[in-house]
């Protein structure tokens, strides 16, 4: 269109050379081209265009290294013609095209946009919820077949926002935020006579205020079917200001106090500056807190804009006058105490007969206190049974006395509390033992929950005015102050029970004098001197004080020397006897002497411990650990006090031999598949012994690491009776263990594998026969480990694969030769017909 700005883009692709390309622009009306402008040659411009280029009416705008735009401002009809864009070649070889042309057609400006009745921008002052209409006229006299695109816009700041458009394709398009209002019909765009376009807005809000303009653009369809915008014009139509509707909602009274069973009367007054036709909607809410929102509050009653009141039995809502609405609540009770507030809204009619809410306000909450009709009564607590000793029963009775002003809709429940009394005047906070709700359902507290469930504490309602608490077996932890709280419950109109009053009784102290438990244990060795193999015997005598009918449990412990501690803390639990005379072996692990220890009850306070065929390894300090038990509740026993006896020492004086153990191997490094020989050699120092007077338990272990940082694995063992046992292993190698001499034991690993490597050692337990013929077990002796390495034999590893490969290759070669011979001999044989030759002798020349 004449007078507009035109930008013609030109780009190049698939080129070699520098990334930034240059462009030349030329123009032709008929046949010859005139040079306009160039990106790299300032003298390129012809004389005809030098002034326009110098003024900036024609310029180049580079958008990237390979694209530019020719910009022509204020285009004229003389600029109609063909424009050619060319780029100098930077390629090594000429390929593709290096110029392109475009035809530009310039048409006259036939677009006209104006406001209604050719007036300039006007101002409209509207109230919230009103409707308004704006008109604009748009015509075009273009010689081309063009289409108009009309858009209504509003400016509420520095930017324009689209309201509703009629596109050049004849489609309605609402702006962002107006989609829902367009679908509901609140925002419409209508076309009228004389090319007018009317914008209609209903239910105007404050967001609709601002300056409105009509933006019209002209579009034309190109030869390829695409649409092109050729020009755009706008005109401001009006400035619309929306005034908010003022609404004030007040409850006539501030704070109200009402007695239970009376009526509550509240009035909500509304004031508004709205004129004309409108209706008010009123809703009353109730909330327990003044800070609750409407979503958290309870809706009591409502009256809509058609004066329809929601249904309720005890609550009514009436319209006193045009601006007053009365709420009446009859027969109030305590649960009606809280905060009341009313919400009012103004509704205005629309053109289609519907109603629109323009403003809504909520009053400040009014505090309403309903005073309950409390009953008057006293509470008395007494102890009908008090304990004299531990585990005696305790019973407390809580009575309701001097009951006055009670109705048939009152019932009572009880809560029991306990408070521990500390030395001096200090007290602990009270703890809830149990309580009853309005239905007399029992609710145990944390302190007594388990005992109530087990029946140790019983709570009951003996009569209409008496509640009792009974402790079947009272313990020292139950000593302290007890009190009860009687709660009065009132029945409300919805048949629910609400607590109206609590009255606490005076406390009752449960206490009895006690003395500390004492327990004395004395251990006595019956035989002062004995040797290994004989029976060790000791008794434990127990005496106690201040314990009611005690029973005792006994545990025998042994403290072994540092070199032989089977327990981490140095103490071994041997055998125990419970208070019910049940004997149990604790940590006694000698399977050959399962019956070698005995613990029995001689008298009520005396116990005897025997250990038969004592061994040198039994040396140590032996004690009696005694626990005194007293009878508890429910036939159970309760631990009272513990006691420890004096130690009894078992010490063997011997001058027997001293054994040493070592591990030896002639070849600690072997190859896979070979046999590893490991010798466990026992040496003896001191007094020599005959081979028949000594025997050994030998066990072989392996640690599969270099640094001995893993658990040892049992390989095999040989006891002193010659029985061999093997441990569980994952490998395929075989083990054998044998005694080759009285003091030498050999372990063989047959067919060694990689997993057989590691540190190997033997553990030897010597057994020596004493002069009396009893076998004595000596302490275990562990040898220093030896590391066994297993290597791979490369020659043997590859020998069989090579032989198999050579054999297969030879067999395949012979088979190939055989197949070839047979094929040539029988399958591919051809018969050749030989030409028969005559046998004639040459004649001699003389006969010729």
From TrEMBL:
Gene Ontology CC annotation, any one: membrane
Transmembrane segments: 800-821
Topological type in the membrane: Single-pass membrane protein
CDD domains: IgV
Entry's localization field: Membrane
Keywords recorded for this protein, A-Z: Disulfide bond, Immunoglobulin domain, Membrane, Repeat, Signal, Transmembrane, Transmembrane helix
Signal peptide residue numbers: none
Annotated Ig-like domain residues: 1-95, 128-236, 247-344, 375-504, 657-765
Gene3D superfamilies: Immunoglobulins
PANTHER family the record matches: PROSTAGLANDIN F2 RECEPTOR NEGATIVE REGULATOR, V-SET AND TRANSMEMBRANE DOMAIN-CONTAINING PROTEIN
Annotated protein name in UniProt: Ig-like domain-containing protein
